[in-house]
Amino acid sequence: MDRRQFLAASTVGLATAVAGCAASPLSTDDGDSNPDGSESAGRGEITVSAGGEVEAEPDRAIVSVGVEASGGSAEAVTDELATGAERLRAAFDDLEIPEENVEEGQYRISPVRRRDGGTDGFEGTHSFEVTLTDVDRVGEVVDAAVAAGADDMGYVNFTLQEETRAELRKDAIDAALDNADAEAAHIADNRGVSLEGTTAVTSGDVQVHPVRREAMASGDAAGGAPPTEIDAEPVTVSASVTVTYAFAG
């Protein structure tokens, strides 16, 4: 993906050099032990924990919008929310958004409490989450929702599709391993020893960090205002690894 950008910075959490450790998979029975059976003083291990990150432009967006209502009874609020939800669904249909990409969000009706413990009518909200694979349409969806009567503007989550996540997951691990190799080489050079290979590798969590923006329209698009534009920064995928290297002095 040509817009992907690897971060050069290394996020190293731990680096230790230990001499005289238990035999590693690279050790042999010839010349590695002293007569008393102890490990040769010139052999040991270096363990490094490092992180890596990659970035990519988002290719998936989740828009949260909804309607609100208030009234003297729960039934009245229910009817008003139903009418508003129908208008929103019609707007999504006009935009040719697949039904499976429109999910029910929050649906709530509750009494409005007074300080004296009584109630002063009811209020409610009905929201939807709209998933887009064309992130350039986010502003179009927000404007259409507002024109259809949406008054509960939530958020936009810019993230990655599953295929992109899987690809960047590997790239983030590769970046973390590269950083671990560089850190281990630096430690070995500082200590005057030579790395002989890897004896153990542990991969930590690989995390996707979405970008969240408020789903706020720029104005009344139907009245001639410019279409809403919501820009997102690149999405970051991070990984961490712990690698153990054998060395000989």
UniProtKB/TrEMBL annotation:
PROSITE patterns registered for this protein in UniProt: PROKAR_LIPOPROTEIN
GO BP annotations, alphabetical order: DNA damage response
Region (Disordered): 23-55
InterPro entries in alphabetical order: 26kDa_periplasmic_antigen, SIMPL/DUF541
One Pfam family per UniProt: SIMPL
Domain of life: Archaea
PANTHER family: SLR1258 PROTEIN
Protein name per Swiss-Prot or TrEMBL: SIMPL domain-containing protein
The species this protein was found in: Natrinema salsiterrestre
